[in-house]
Amino acid sequence: MKRLIVSCILAVALLLVPVAGALAATSQDVTVTATPAFISIANTPGTWDINDVDGGGGKTIAPDTIYYSNPVGDTTAPSATVVDGECRFTITNTSSVNIDIVINFPDHTGGDASANSDLGTNDTAKFGAYSYTSYAGFNTYATDKEIAKVTGSTALLTTSSAGDNFLWGLAYESQADAWASGDAMSSTIVITATPS
Amino acid sequence: MKRFLTLIAVMGLAVGVMLIPAAALAAFGIDPGKVYVDNLYPGAEADYKITIYNQNDYEATFAITARDPDYTATDYEVFPYPEWITVTPDQATIKPGGQSDVLIVLIMPEDASYSGKKGETWISFKEQGTEGMIKIELCSRLFISTRVEKAGEPPAVSGDGAVGITAEAEEPEPGPSFPWVIPGAVLGALIAGGAVFFLVRRRQQV
Questions:
Q1: B84-102, pLDDT tens digit by residue?
Q2: In A, which residues are within 8 Å of B134 by CB distance?
Q3: Is A37 left (phi over 0), alpha (psi -120 to 50) or beta?
Q4: Using only C-alpha atoms, what is the Rg of chain B?
Q5: Is residue A128 within 8 Å of A161, Cβ to Cβ?
Q6: Among A51, A89, B150, B181, whose CB has the most other CB atoms within 10 angstroms?
Q7: What is the pLDDT of residue A37?
């Protein structure tokens, strides 16, 4: 009799064993250890009033005209090989790793709200823009300048080393047709830094 | 006379330094810059943190979003499902010199069909309310690769960046997981128990 009872209890226990699997924990942790990679940049100056590179103020822009952030002159194109003196802005790579730099130029707000053509050239109610740099290896103006699009521009500079300083500038071609309102427009240019 | 000239030069230098606009210099940093999530599969989840450092001398607010990359690494496409990514918080206010963690959660839905693919997306950090025309955006690159089958290894997460990122990958354990297993086992136990009871009673009667 005793033997029979023990056998039956064992049978019941065996039936319950597979249930334990269904009640097990369902998560698993993965821990990653890596070398710190700090991403940071500085840019100066933080503004550009188009056609006022000398900072005199009170100037307006004409339609269908190319302006540069070139300290040499507002309508002076950079040299075939861009030099530092033709760039208004300085970016310092304060990261701990190499980085890429992208310049995007969103549509204007206010006034005629001129939109970016994303082609580098102007059109009716659309402006065009390029970014350029004097950084060695990227300073041939004709071939190394990059279209500054609303988003998704090609990187102006790739694999900038940690601690690098480099100078850069913008070319802006105002919309092809005349202004309707004549009120001021503005846009917030975005410098994007990512690890290479 | 020499001492006087030196004094004038030092004063001039001090004035020059003060004229440098502090607001135009470095504002913030992030870490890590690259994170890889591999072997993602339908139903799986991967979590990690990005730390943001406010290097300003003032309290600053940063907006954080997942966005399409401006370009991608070789063999990677633009990750087509940004809705799988949750950023918490999506806005952070940090004291000067302070830092804050942002949690990135990537969940691949059970019914997703994105197997054996490689996608890249960027986690964007922008300071809010900054005056001026030119804004700095820092992006951490997130590389995602998926596998074909569901069962097997949990997603592996690695990164170039902050030490000790913890990633959690959820995966069903092997073994029975069908909903009828537990009631079936209970029913079996009841039947066996009944049989024992019946046999014992029968023996006692005999």
A1: 999 999 999 999 999 999 9
A2: 43, 46-48, 89, 188-191
A3: beta
A4: 30
A5: no
A6: A89
A7: 82
Q: Specify the amino acid at residue B124.
A: S
Q: Give the per-residue pLDDT at B18.
A: 29
Give all strands (DSSP E) within A53-187, no chain letters.
66-68, 89-93, 99-104, 115-116, 126-133, 146-147, 157-160, 165-173
CA B189 – CA B206 distance, rounded (Å)? 26
Query: Do A174 and A63 contact (CB within 8 A), yes or no?
Result: yes
Biggest CA–CA distance in chain A, Å, is 109
Which domains, from first to last, does chain B contain? Answer: 24-173 (2.60.40.10)
| Closest chain B residue to A169, measured at CA | B134
Q: Does an H or E element contain B48, and which?
A: strand B45-54
What is the spatial distance between Cα A166 and Cα A152, in angstroms, rounded to a whole number?
A: 22
Which residue is listed with tokens 């969103």?
A: A106
Shortest Cα distance, chain B CAs vs residue A72, angstroms? 21
Please state, in angstroms and rounded to a whole number, the distance separating the CA atoms of residues B195 and B206. Answer: 16
Between A and B, how many CB-CB pairs are < 8 A? 215
**Tokens linked to B112:** 């997703």
ipTM above 0.90, yes or no: no
Count CB neighbours of B128 within 10 A. Answer: 12
In the numeric block, the tokens 């080393």 are attached to: A161
B39 is written with which tokens?
Answer: 């072997």
Which residue type sits at B189?
A
Residue B17 pLDDT exceeds 50:
no
pTM (two decimals): 0.72
